[in-house]
Design goal:
alpha+beta; 14 helices; Triger factor/SurA peptide-binding fold; Chitinase A, domain 3
């Protein structure tokens, strides 16, 4: 038998004790949204839309889940939306039924205590008094039954992952060391922070259908729906729990098709659907950085300034005098002791010791003037709406180079491996099940 690494033993213990609570909180947080008011469903005869191993899913179940998914994702609840998303949501209900059935088979079914705790977290996150969740949801046009059914499936699947999948994840120390070394060797290369929405291509959903649905979801997001909310409700990747957040990855570690798309994206934009072997992705580029580089926004400086008041209506001669005086200060003052003396001499309210500031928290024009200064060196004059400023850095603290830690690498590899195994496990459950779509 292959020896279990120290990392495996440590991670398995942490995973079993922490993951369930973390995912419960994430499920609750996913519902901390501005719900769109949904139409009241017409009451009528309940029909059966699917049977999963002798367990039925009704058209009422489907209607309630569609209502929840559309409202939570910020999509308009229209007949067109329901028609195009119905098959996809039904597929999720089938998967959730299988997940709950598997939890029961393994003897790790969801308890009443766990559901009550989940409800308490939902109430707390949404600012609802204890016992008021049903009323709160009803006011938003959302049925509590649908919410708690989704929460139950999330808890059940997390427990299945803990019981049957996490213990099988084989992550050797050598693999972690290899990726850490790859990051070290990639100093100076780009890494990207991504969020994803993944839809699987399978027997029920062909590539053309999935690609078309991805285009529609992209249009919804561009029209104002939140990417993270859409990911939570519709993505089939494990990152859906985190609103699709993938964290930081090396650009050259992405699949070639995804790398070519992401490398051409601007921060804050959303890709077109990206085909892969298993399905389609939409990705949002949240940030981009250079491995091993210092992010100048994280530089902290102890700052002093002389501010010569000058409002936006100042006449050209007044502006010229203020700029000339600021340039004279910049040309003659050396060091913070002299700067303090000039501050006392000028005596304007805005002048003085500004304390320790992060460059990323300052207006761009100030940060740009300060970032290249040595300690004790005055800046060139900077004009604002209220004054002409001369800055001086009295102390400076640069952040550590932007390099992931070994634990961050290990956790990322663990999550990737676990996500892949969980998808395969669910696929096997589908294949072994008797599913009758009506």
């Amino acid at each position: 038998m292959k020896e279990t690494t120290i990392f495996q033993r440590r991670t398995q213990i942490q995973y079993r004790t922490q993951t369930l609570g973390r995912r419960l909180r994430i499920v609750a947080g996913a519902l901390l949204l501005t719900f769109w008011t949904a139409p009241v469903l017409a009451q009528g005869a309940v029909g059966i839309v699917a049977v999963v191993n002798d367990e039925i899913i009704t058209d009422l179940d489907l209607d309630l889940r569609l209502q929840l998914a559309l409202s939570s994702a910020g999509l308009s609840d229209t007949l067109e939306s329901r028609a195009r998303l119905g098959d996809q949501i039904l597929g999720y209900l089938v998967d959730e039924t299988l997940q709950i059935q598997e939890a029961l088979r393994l003897g790790v079914g969801v308890t009443e205590f766990e559901l009550a705790e989940a409800k308490r977290v939902l109430e707390d996150r949404n600012g609802v008094p204890p016992g008021g969740l049903a009323r709160f949801l009803a006011e938003q046009g959302v049925d509590e039954t649908a919410v708690m059914a989704q929460v139950e499936a999330e808890i059940a699947w997390t427990k299945v992952i803990n019981e049957a999948i996490a213990v099988q994840v084989d992550l050797a120390d050598e693999e972690i060391d290899e990726v850490v070394a790859r990051f070290a060797a990639s100093e100076g290369q780009f890494r990207v922070q991504l969020a994803e929405i993944f839809l699987e291509v399978n027997g029920a959903n062909g590539a053309a259908d999935v690609a078309a649905e991805m285009e529609r979801l992209r249009a919804d997001i561009l029209a104002g729906a939140q990417f993270s909310a859409v990911a939570r409700q519709f993505s089939q990747s494990a990152s859906a729990y985190q609103g699709g957040d993938m964290g930081w990855v090396l650009l050259n570690q992405l699949e070639p098709d995804m790398e070519s798309v992401v490398s051409a994206m601007e921060v804050g934009t959303i890709s077109t659907p990206i085909p892969t072997a298993g399905g389609y992705y939409l990705v949002m580029l949240r940030d981009r950085s250079i491995v091993g580089a210092v992010d100048p926004r994280d530089v902290q400086v102890h700052l002093m300034q002389v501010a010569l008041p000058l409002d936006g209506n100042a006449q050209p001669p007044e502006v010229a005098r203020a700029l000339a005086r600021a340039e004279s200060i910049g040309a003659t003052v050396v060091g913070c002791i002299q700067m303090a003396a000039v501050i006392d001499e000028v005596g304007t309210p805005q002048s003085g010791d500004l304390g320790i500031l992060r460059l990323g928290d300052m207006p761009n024009r100030f940060g740009d003037a300060i970032i290249g200064l040595n300690v004790g060196q005055p800046s060139a004059p900077v004009r604002s709406e209220e004054a002409v400023h001369v800055f001086m850095v009295c102390a400076r603290e640069d952040p550590e180079p932007d390099m992931p830690t070994r634990d961050e690498v290990a956790n990322s590899l663990w999550d990737q491996r676990l996500d892949l195994m969980a998808r395969r496990y669910l696929r096997d459950l589908r294949r072994a099940a008797v599913i009758d779509y009506r």
